[in-house]
Amino acid sequence: MSTVLVTGGLGYIGSHTVVELIEAGHQVIVVDDLSNADKDVLQGIQGITGTAPAFEMLDLRDRSGVKDLFKRHQQIDGVIHFAASKAVGESVENPLLYYENNINSLVYLLQNCNENGVKNFIFSSSCTVYGQPEQNPITEDSPVQPAVSPYGNTKQIGEEILYDSCGAYGLKCISLRYFNPIGAHASAQIGELPKGVPANLVPFITQTAAGIREQLAVFGDDYPTADGSCIRDYIHVVDLAKAHVVALERLFQGNNTDKYEVFNIGTGQGSSVLEVIRAFEKVSGKPLNYQVVDRRPGDVISVYADTTKAREVLGWHAIHSLEEALDSAWRWERRIRNLDR
Ligand code: NAD
Ligand code: WQD
Q1: Rounded to the nearest whole angstrom, what is the distance from the C-alpha of residue 82 to the centroid of ligand 1?
Q2: To which H or E segment does residue 67 belong?
Q3: d(Cα 271, Cα 72) in Å, to the nearest integer?
Q4: Rounded distance between C-alpha atoms, residue 213 and residue 201, angstroms
């Protein structure tokens, strides 16, 4: 049995990955500062898996705290690093907060991995590194574009830090470039918990359907796409979580061909905003109150993944449909709002 340190393990993607790791037989240590998560998520994880992972409440910007963490846990075989600040708009308003959190936390973790002989590292990257691709679906070989936000820049810099660290310290790292994660665990015991007004499409849709928001604003229908709305690659969070387990096992087994590897993690399917709304209406059986408004500054028109590399090299592909993902998101929203009582 291997021991995996999961930073940000009570967050949205982290908590689903912790479940998959436990179910795959790994022992998990969760680190989270609860800046964007609730401690109750631990109960959700335990409810699903029957196991409570070890939990360390720690802000990874605390350099000596990170050192002590590695002292307390001598047997760490691999790290999956989710912890980061992720609100694009906030990163424009307060870039230094993002550089401090997303970069310092990564550097302190890597220093301690190096000092403690921890060689296996998985990093949460993002399709945001591609900006607006000239061609879709986009492959991993496509050039990384100048970042459109400080948040996006922290993902690009993070990848560069990891590439250099692999070269210098014998680290093995896989960066997973996520497309748009949506949905929740089938049990509805864990899911996405955005604080305040959601910035992302699917939580805004489910909150609107639940009556918490009055109306969804669709940001533009005059883009050069079939129906005029933007296109993204929406991936079920459980499929995404499973990709982490596969990637980590690749490193554990020494099957990686390069010390630093990058994989797109998406479905390979592009869906427009209006298609997502239609699919949601179908699975929920409810018409959604929405209105088309102006474009949102900074949005790319269209981005979706070429997933050939993940299929061929990792042996991973997404199995859930858009409808299944939206159905799970809606069941989660109903559960946390007590709508089924
Ligand atoms: P999330 O906010 O739900 O999870 C991040 C977790 O990290 C939270 O629980 C938060 O409390 C914790 N955290 C933040 N800073 C910390 C710190 N300094 N010390 C300890 N814990 C800290 O976000 P998520 O959607 O689960 O995203 C996970 C990762 O995936 C992030 O790195 C994010 O940038 C990346 N990512 C997310 C998306 C997305 O659309 N959700 C897309 C691409 C990449
Ligand atoms: C999806 C589509 C919006 C909300 C962001 C980050 C990116 C990545 C994922 C981490 C777009 C439209 C949205 C709404 C809408 N995160 N929309 N009304 O923009 O692809 O990416 O999250 O790495 O870095 O930028 O996701 O969910 O915000 O938007 O019409 O209220 O939905 O315009 O076309 P996005 P999103």
Answers
A1: 5
A2: helix 63-72
A3: 46
A4: 12
Q: How many CA atoms lie within 13 A of 318 on its CB side?
A: 27
Rounded Cα distance, 301 and 160, in Å: 26
Taking only the tens place, the pLDDT of each residue in 94-131 is 999 999 999 999 999 999 999 999 999 999 999 999 99
**CA of residue 101 to ligand 1 center, whole Å:** 11
Is the minimum distance from the CB of 59 to ligand 1 under 6 angstroms? yes
Q: Sketch out the chain's domains with CATH numbers.
A: 3-183+234-265 (3.40.50.720), 201-232+268-335 (3.90.25.10)
Does the Cβ of 263 fall within 6 Å of ligand 1? no
pLDDT digits (tens, 9 = 90+) for 155-201: 999 999 999 999 999 999 999 999 999 999 999 999 999 999 999 99
Report d(CA 144, CA 130) in Å as an integer: 5
pTM, two decimals, is 0.99
DSSP string for residues in 114-147: HHTT--EEEEEEEGGGG-S-SSSSBPTTSPPPPP
pLDDT in tens, 216-268: 999 999 999 999 999 999 999 999 999 999 999 999 999 999 999 999 999 99
CA 260/CA 166 separation, integer angstroms: 6
Our answer on whether the CB atom of 180 is closer than 6 Å to any ligand 2 atom is yes
151 is catalytic: yes
pLDDT tens-digit series, residues 54-104: 999 999 999 999 999 999 999 999 999 999 999 999 999 999 999 999 999
Distances (CA, A) of 103 to 79, 142, 169: 16, 24, 18
Q: ipTM of this complex > 0.90?
A: yes
